[in-house]
């Protein structure tokens, strides 16, 4: 009898403990640390930037040492603002101010400068040990892109290391290059233009471009730079163009390449505004060999991130190029369709070291975009105000992204501890007048993005958690906050990403093609007269109007005082006296 009583008491005790633990977990779900927003400011001009808002493709601008890389306007109006050709002015940034790359950590910001003779530079990637890759003007003019009164100012791929800027050179005697990514070994990858004419050049016909990128009908080639030597990585099949977009710490590379020279008859999201291009596939490069990662049946695929174990995530068209799904690729299993949340379109944006993938897909009917987390199966993270998209996930399973409205640009969100997602602005202490959008986080739970002020000017920002890893931060509120959580489309909590790591696979221009979005733009889902959906191109975190220098269409609203000025190829919001790109 005594033993039965003890067993009963033990069972009751364990049951109470389980209930208490469950209640505690639920309480944690509703409580979050405050964050302090740090405005990176500028070098005297109106705006500052980080990769992910002005550049298309994979991104990594905040490492786990807490170092952030970006670039900021100086007070100098861009000297090339009055030079132009049929494709636009020759400004480095959309606001036509010269800018310099920077790194910042612990409240100190360092101007990385430019190559001798150059006015502007920008970062593209920061490695885990603080190496920075990007581009810089060099004071020379591109003979292949003519303009008036000057030709296009040349750009060179650069590496900032040990306080020095290194010109990485070009390929095939071409005039220009740009770095996309760098690893802790100092290996750099990117693009270079040679002197071979190509009507289907990735930079002319593709949907991934920067404000500062030249628009030329010459071959675009993928490169690897190491130990002072730039090497052409080649292309897939009989293709003529390729772009190396990311490299991991093991020297494995991913990017995009044409697989042939035959122009397809169906427009895809890989072509600029419906431009017909050859088949474009993601590639994986290792030890001197470029491998075609294939696709999900269509003619357009793009990678968005490569993990240190060689896993690649991105998006790929299905047969017919009328739908696209997020994918996970490994050397052992090849390309895996991660599926969607019921819609036809989706993109996998990032994968962490536990193999957890995040991104966004449309829901049934393709009228709403929701952030997702995949850990062997896909989970809907919900949405705030009808839209969400996840850009990053750290090793703790914290997911960050943006939410709200037709463009997912009304604010930033944090999803942690099984959810639901919370509006990051409700966690800021003190509150900020900047409207934040975010694209990166690190293992210190810091978050990087941009904040837009009432005038539409964007500033690079860093959100610092007020937690035990960041003690004595001035102005930090270290109490936990019961966040004002907006209704979620999927309020049902899902298991923590780190808790599910044992079930993960052992092998280790964001774009929804039919909706027309290049990867430097966020999603904007609108009903057209035909009843189909499309995506308008605005920088992530942009205001409801389209700012000066940003791409527009005749039916879209430029900010006050601007008009959508059409050129022979593209149209941009311009002020009086400006020239369309």
Protein architecture, described:
The protein is mainly β and 581 residues long. Among the domains are: 2-31; 545-581, no CATH class. 6% of the residues lie in helices and 39% in strands. The protein contains 2 helices and 40 strands. The strands form 12 sheets. Strands 2-35-34-33 form a 4-stranded antiparallel sheet, with no helix packed on it. It is globular, with a radius of gyration of 23 Å.
Outline the fold blueprint.
Blueprint: H1 2-29, E1 31-33, E2 35-39, E3 44-49, E4 68-77, E5 84-85, E6 88-89, E7 97-105, E8 108-113, E9 121-126, E10 132-141, E11 153-161, E12 164-167, E13 176-182, E14 188-197, H2 202-205, E15 218-226, E16 229-232, E17 242-247, E18 253-258, E19 280-286, E20 289-292, E21 301-306, E22 312-317, E23 324-330, E24 334-337, E25 346-351, E26 357-362, E27 369-374, E28 378-380, E29 388-393, E30 399-403, E31 411-415, E32 422-423, E33 435-441, E34 447-452, E35 458-465, E36 480-482, E37 525-527, E38 533-535, E39 563-566, E40 571-574
Antiparallel strand pairs: 1-36, 2-35, 3-4, 4-7, 5-6, 7-8, 9-10, 10-11, 11-12, 13-14, 14-15, 15-16, 17-18, 18-19, 19-20, 21-22, 22-23, 23-24, 25-26, 26-27, 27-28, 29-30, 30-31, 31-32, 33-34, 34-35, 37-38, 39-40
Oligomeric state of shown chains: single chain
Query: Approximately how much helix is present in the residues?
Result: under 10%
**Poorly predicted ranges (pLDDT <50, ≥5 residues)?**
1-28, 485-551, 567-581
> Biggest β-sheet, characterized?
4 strands, antiparallel
Q: From the alpha-carbon coordinates, what is the Rg to the nearest angstrom? A: 23 Å
Strand segment count? 40
> What fraction of residues sit in β-strands?
35-45%
Task: Give the overall pLDDT as a whole number.
Answer: 82
Strand order of the largest sheet: 2-35-34-33
Helix-and-strand structural type: mainly beta
The rough form would be described as: globular
Count of discrete alpha- or pi-helical segments spanning 4 or more residues: 2
Span between N and C termini?
88 Å
């Amino acid at each position: 009898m005594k033993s039965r009583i003890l067993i009963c008491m033990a069972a009751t005790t364990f049951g109470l403990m389980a209930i208490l633990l469950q209640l505690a977990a639920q309480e944690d779900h509703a409580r979050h640390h405050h964050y302090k927003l740090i405005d990176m400011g500028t070098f005297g001009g109106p705006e500052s930037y980080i990769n992910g808002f002005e550049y298309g493709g994979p991104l990594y601008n905040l490492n786990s040492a807490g170092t952030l890389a970006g670039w900021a306007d100086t007070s100098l109006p861009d000297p090339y603002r009055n030079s132009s050709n049929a494709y636009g002015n020759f400004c480095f940034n959309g606001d036509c101010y010269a800018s310099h790359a920077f790194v910042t950590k612990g409240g100190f910001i360092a101007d990385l400068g430019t190559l001798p003779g150059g006015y502007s530079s920008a970062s593209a990637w920061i490695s885990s040990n603080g190496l920075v890759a990007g581009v810089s003007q060099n004071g020379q003019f591109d003979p292949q892109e003519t303009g008036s009164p000057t030709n296009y100012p040349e750009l060179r791929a650069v590496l900032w290391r040990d306080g020095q800027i290194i010109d990485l050179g070009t390929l095939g005697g071409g005039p220009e290059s740009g770095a996309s990514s760098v690893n802790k070994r100092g290996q750099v990858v990117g693009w270079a233009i040679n002197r071979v004419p190509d009507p289907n050049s990735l930079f002319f016909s593709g949907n991934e471009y920067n404000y500062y990128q030249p628009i030329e009908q010459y071959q675009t080639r993928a490169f690897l730079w190491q130990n002072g030597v730039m090497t052409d990585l080649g292309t897939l099949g009989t293709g003529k163009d390729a772009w190396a977009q990311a490299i991991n710490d093991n020297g494995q590379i991913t990017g995009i390449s044409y697989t042939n020279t035959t122009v397809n008859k169906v427009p895809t999201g890989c072509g600029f505004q419906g431009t017909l291009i050859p088949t474009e596939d993601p590639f994986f490069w290792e030890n001197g060999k470029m491998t075609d990662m294939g696709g999900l049946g269509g003619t357009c695929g793009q990678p968005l991130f490569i993990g240190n174990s060689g896993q690649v995530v991105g998006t790929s068209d299905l047969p017919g190029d009328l739908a696209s799904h997020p994918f996970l690729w490994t050397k052992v299993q090849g390309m895996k369709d991660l599926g969607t949340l019921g819609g036809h379109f989706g993109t996998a944006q990032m994968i962490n070291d536990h193999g957890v993938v995040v991104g966004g897909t449309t829901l049934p009917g393709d009228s709403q975009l929701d952030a997702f987390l995949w850990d062997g199966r896909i989970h809907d993270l919900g949405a705030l105000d009808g839209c969400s998209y996840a850009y990053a996930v750290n090793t703790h399973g914290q997911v960050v992204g943006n939410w709200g409205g037709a463009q997912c640009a009304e604010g930033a969100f944090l999803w942690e501890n099984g959810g639901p997602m919370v509006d990051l602005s409700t966690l800021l202490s003190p509150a900020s007048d900047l409207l934040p959008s975010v694209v990166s986080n690190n293992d210190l739970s810091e978050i990087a993005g941009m904040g837009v002020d009432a005038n539409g000017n964007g500033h690079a920002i860093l959100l610092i958690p007020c937690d035990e890893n960041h003690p004595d931060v001035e102005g930090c509120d270290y109490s936990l906050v019961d966040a004002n959580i907006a209704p979620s489309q999927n309020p049902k909590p899902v298991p923590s990403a780190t808790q599910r790591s044992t079930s993960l696979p052992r092998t280790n221009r964001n774009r929804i093609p039919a909706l027309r979005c290049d990867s430097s733009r966020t999603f904007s889902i609108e009903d057209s007269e035909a009843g189909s959906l499309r995506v308008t191109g605005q920088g992530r975190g942009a205001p409801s109007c389209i700012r000066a220098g940003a791409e527009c269409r005749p039916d879209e609203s430029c900010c006050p005082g601007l008009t959508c000025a059409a050129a022979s190829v593209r149209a941009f919001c311009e002020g009086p006296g400006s020239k369309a790109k």
